Amino acid sequence: MNNKRIKSTKSTQKPKKHKPDPFFSGDKPRRKQKHASDDDSIKSSDSEDEEYGEKALADVADVDGGGDVDVEETAGEKRKRMAEAYLEKMREMARREIEEGDDDDDVAGGGDVEERVGRMLHKQQMEDSGRARRLIAKSVQKPKTTDEFRFLVKHRQSVTAVVLSEDDSTGFSASKDGYIIQWDVETGKTQPYVWPSEEVLRSHGANELQGKAKKRSKHVLALAVSSDGRYLASGGFDRHIHLWDTRTREHIQAFKGHKGPVSCLTFRQGTSELFSGSYDRTIKLWNAEDRAFVHTLFGHQSDVLTIDCLRKERLLTVGRDRTMHLWKVPEESQLVFRAPASSLECCCFISDDEFLSGSDDGSVEHWSVMRKKPLHIIKNAHPLLTPNNLENNGQNDDLPNGDLNHAPESVCSSAHSWVGSVAVCRGTDLAASGAGNGMVRLWEIENDTKGVKPLFELPLVGYVNSLAFAKSGKFLVAGVGKEPRLGRWGSLPTARHGVAIHPLHLS
After folding, report:
1. Mean pLDDT of 329-353
2. Compositionally biased, Acidic residues: which spans (predicted)?
């Protein structure tokens, strides 16, 4: 009987249905594989509002002097204390402005202190999220005769990358000989980074030397610094991304995975997410805080040259395949923009929906996410002047976009006129571009119908391989050398290797 009962139980038991894993069956999967296509679309997101709140609270961590805090304080109590301190700081600013009668056009409107604080917070949130643009280009005054690029830091070989910390007080630069230097913007005091031994590099995650190689290349092509200023990332010919602690200037991690030289790096603003581009045609995402690899993006058909990222999870890349890609990272969707008749060399965001690029034909392009072709092309942006045109000092500021009728003596066929770097002062309408023709040019980015307007030319001999604006727009930093960043052609023997700084006076 017992055997029959057991047999009966087995025969009547129904097979269980397999429940799919919720990670794969969710309505909105985190990552959905899509083929790179010109028809892919990117939709905007308001996630930066939450990130802005986190950033605002973090900014006041030191408001109360970093005094003693109860050990039993919970996370919620800490957030409340930081928020109250931040609001009190804003109230003090509002009271001071009311007493001094200082009415900012964007904040003015009367009302009591609380109303003014609300308007100030709204304006700051819009600017930090990239949805409002500070119009400072028109207030940039013409450089005085005494204003010029002043060399702040010296390097032994051509500088390939220059970056500034979030508060603009500290700068970082790297050169082809592998030297990475941290320097103070005000005093110019330098502190070098020392490469660790081969044993330490391997213990930090680096691959072993391949073949008959006795030492690894220290040639650095790219730098990036995190928003909190804790991490500095470097990449170059050794195919690794090296992570450094900026407080101790010590090497802490080597990320391996790229099969070609690492040509460009960027941190997403306000996060520890690090993006890298390589000659292996891929873009990789890393987490500096967790010291971990996250994901790989595919789409370029040739070397990835330049990369940029703002606060949103959007990524802008340029490759030798004459295309520029705008990525929405979580979904891996991308828009592909094709250059009309030249190879793109560099790019940067103006806002989440607009961006700037430089080409090897000497032109600067203004793009919008709404069009696959440039909104405006500024041809002959960095002409190599012929002897007959030197007496004009290259002043072609009156030329409309793309018009060369009045400048027949200027040519852009030489490598000296290739636009090797572009930069935008974050959240503003002020931009700059650099080449090897002896001039850094400032531009005003107007609306879609008016394009890009030339402002001033700042003389600087050498290849301008990297540019960085202060967040305030009060100065511009350039990394220069005798050779371009990605090659050794067209050397300029009279140029100097180093980092130069130029003041910008705002009215």
Report:
1. 90
2. 61-74
Give me the residues paired with residue 35 across strands: none
Domain that holds residue 126: 87-96+113-132
Share of the chain above pLDDT 70, in %: 75
Distance CA 132, CA 139 (A): 17
The verdict on residue 107 lying in a domain is no
491: Cα separation from own chain's centroid: 27
Tokens 């891996």 belong to residue: 332
**Mean pLDDT to the nearest integer, 460-470:** 96
Query: Is residue 304 domain-shared with residue 352, that is, in the same domain?
Result: yes
**Is 91 inside any structural domain?**
yes
d(C-alpha 136, C-alpha 141), whole Å: 10
CATH number at residue 354: 2.130.10.10
Residue 26 lies in a domain: no
Helices 75-100 and 113-128: angle between axes, nearest 10 degrees: 110
Beta strands at 150-154 and 241-245: parallel, antiparallel or unpaired? unpaired
Q: How confident is the model at residue 6 (pLDDT cuts 50, 70, 90)?
A: very low
Q: Are residues 277 and 347 in the same domain?
A: yes
Same domain, yes or no, for 256 and 127?
no
Looking at residue 468, its amino acid is A
| Better pLDDT: 45 or 90 | 90
Helices 75-100 and 48-58: crossing angle in degrees, nearest 10, is 80
Residue tagged 């005094």 (tokens) = 67
92 and 182 share a domain?
no
Q: For residue 368, what is the enclosing H or E element?
A: strand 364-368
Give the DSSP per-residue string, 168-223.
SSEEEEEETTS-EEEEETTT--EEEEPPPPHHHHHHTTPPPPPTT-SS----EEEE
Residues 122 and 153 in one domain: no
Angle at 415 between CA 413 and CA 419, to 5 degrees: 95
Count of the separate structural domains present in the chain: 2
154 and 121 share one domain: no
What average pLDDT does this structure show over 43-68? 51
Residue 102: band (very low, low, confident or very high) from pLDDT cuts 50, 70, 90:
low
Q: What is the mean pLDDT of the chain?
A: 81
Same domain for 120 and 243, yes or no, is no
Distance CA 250, CA 195 (A): 8
> What predicted TM-score, i.e. pTM, was given to this entire model?
0.74
Decide if 258 is inside a domain: yes
Do 234 and 335 lie in a common domain? yes
Q: What is the mean pLDDT of residues 447-476?
A: 91
